[in-house]
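Quick one: structure for this chain?
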Amino acid sequence: MPHPPPPDALLLVSTACPHCSSVLEGLAVLLKEGLIGRLEAVNVAVRAERAAELGVRSVPWLRLGPFELDGALTPAELRHWAEQAGSEAGMAEYFLHLLKTGRRAKVEAMARQEPARLLALVRLLGGEANGMAVRLGIGAVLEEFQGSETAKIMIPGLGELTRHPDALTRADACHYLSLIGGDEIAPYLRACLDDEDAQVREVAQDALDELHG
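Got it. Here's what it folds into:
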């Protein structure tokens, strides 16, 4: 599989910012190495309208590929996000970052721009346990897409997760399938009626009842 092209970077700085120069220097190194394809830096003390257009209130602020990041990022952090910019794993990590910092609306907006990004949530759910807050955040995102065709791209992946070794993940997968809806989810739910875990069986049955109610 060919590697995705390196991401472009847009950095907003200001004259009085104590951390902006180090972030700019770190990005310049990545530009020279070819890990980013283009670097645009804007001094918002001179071009305040650019910050207003982007809704940015503090600097340094960075758009690196699909990621929007702020604060004093280290060279290692900049390199990490640049390397992850074109991958599903990177998007899953970024969504995790957004959900943990209470920016669920940003996840929703990015998924509406490119529905395939919802696959990162499937990956996130299937990874190591990320706590109830993250799981609730994923559910809240899917509630926003309930009844639409957008989230159906997640059905095969969530169907796979109904066979995950972790019972809580299987139950969550059944619940999330119920939020997406549609006849395509029924085979996965029916298979879970024989699950060894009582909670999984209950969630699957409730989902089927709602589907056929």
